[in-house]
Request: fold
Amino acid sequence: MSKKFYLETYGCQMNVHDSEKANFSLSGSGYEQTSDPLDADLILLNTCMVREKAARKVYSRIAELKHQRRELKRDSAAVFGVMGCVAQAEAERLFERSSDIRLVMGTQAISKLPQLIEQLDQGFPRAIDVHLSKDADFYEINADVRQTTHIAYITITEGCNKFCSFCIVPYTRGRERSRPAEKIIQEAKSLALQGFKEVHLLGQNVNSYGLSGRYRGSLPGVGGTARGTEELTTFAHLLERLAVESGLPRIKYTTSHPRDFDEEIVRVMDSHDNLCEWVHLPAQSGSDRVLRAMRRGYTRREYIEKIDSIKRARKDLSITGDIIVGFPGETDDDFNQTLSMVAEVGYDGLYIFKYSPRPHTPAAAYIDSVTEEVKTERFMKLNELQHRIQKDRYSRYLGRKVEVLVEGVSARSSSDVVGHTRCNKVINFPGAVDLVGNLAAVKVTEIKPNSLYGSLS
Ligand code: SF4
Reply:
């Protein structure tokens, strides 16, 4: 009888995709996935450090699962494992702080999962791999382990070289590497052939694709820079090739970085219908002083210039972003500059975070001078502003026909289905479950604070 694994995923799309990779790796080793943690021989938590006290949450979740298993007298057989950013950052400390954890797998060790499990099967009390290499290979998987049959994630870069002072990613994901273009194109074509309607190209900073990680391979028809046997390409070139060659109806990408985002990307997006009308370009702050302390590598003016290039596009591109409020040293004046920048940009959506320090980052050593109360006040004020902006931005869709990829039955009403537009807005409309996985033309009839509502047209 095959063994069963249960996998719980926290955090971003990158983590969701890593879980798909772990699923692929385990399925090849004779494991079968279960959705019931009480029935599993191996319980893996794929962790994220974007939220505060991430490690502590891992220990409490494991204690909770252990308790539930003990109640059912299923305590003996399960192996508890931790993967993702907490595993990478905490490493051996996880063993020290929880005797239940027997497996720790860093962000580049997914392909080693079978060997790590074998070590445990051979009687080793613990197994760990948190090695990070700037030359690590990308782990290739099949389409059949994707979470859905219509949307798929494709990794194009991993790691980050930017070292923003608040961010732990360069320490947990390592140096930036670009996956060979041929592998990406191949994967995209195979997903299209299998009927996938949409892909999301993933990377901590997709815009720096090809700029820092070198690889070998030929890139026919692309204006890459040849260096001996190595050829480099840029994100814009890759995007154009995918648009032309993949056969995919919808291509989205995330996340962009203002320093590396350029007009060529906008030109390419404008030139190909299957490149969706959405750019997520995080600013983090509207104050040059704070941007410097964050080590973002651009000024507010430079950021606005990039935004203006997006607004000049022929297509109506929707713009979303991230802002951190209450970064150490942020004054009222700094925050007011963020407010005015947000008003100037007019985001279609904004993720607002209250600053909290992450271990091992430079900003963790700064004096966290903004009180929790002030952080909350600023959060509310910015949120309120964004709501007003968003209402206005969303209203331009009223009466418009939009293309929706239907993803499931609405959580609010069983007679409605839900999906995303090409501009990445959530939209609900009355429809039958057999629409799931298909593209539908929907007329927008109503604007909600964070979504649209419509009817089949
Ligand atoms: S660019 Fe993004 S992933 Fe890289 S360090 Fe900055 S915030 Fe983190």
User: Anything to note?
Assistant: The radius of gyration is 23 Å.
